[in-house]
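Hi P.,

Sorry for the delay on this. The queue was packed all week, but I finally got your sequence through. Input first:
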Amino acid sequence: MVIRVFVLILLALSVTSYFIPVKNLIKKDNQTETPLLVFNDSTMYTLTTDSMNRILYAKEVYRFEKRDVMHEGALTLKSYDSKNNYVTDVLYSDVIVKRGDIYKFFKNVRFKRDNFISLNTDELFYNAKEEIATNTLPFNGTYYNNIINGNSLYLDMKSYFMKSNNTHFEIDMKNK
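Then the structure:
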């Protein structure tokens, strides 16, 4: 008889506790993401069946679950232009955030293609899959020793197409 009452009490407690909602005890204010891995002076190579087409160097790399954060880094892209000439593009930045195929460059960003184009800005977004670089902030640079300034850069690395808003282009006529 006592065992039967005890079992019924346990059954009643288990049924009532099933319908009571459980509160999440994790405080959202104290959630800071810690890196899974930390690298110093690291170099990452991207290899294809034909060649090595991407080199990423950084002084510090923090590998998180869904992104990589790099400090004082450079991304070197190697490819061929429309005339089948070898072209090297280099993107320098103080902070690089990588999520999948999207690279975000922040603070003191410099883009350089061989000897004829260089651009300076404070942000640049590069999609490695589509090979397109964009930004939303003002930029300045040189194109064959001519000065170029503008806003909202769009640079297609495949077709070598470049456009921007409010562009100011100064041609040096003395060297022509």
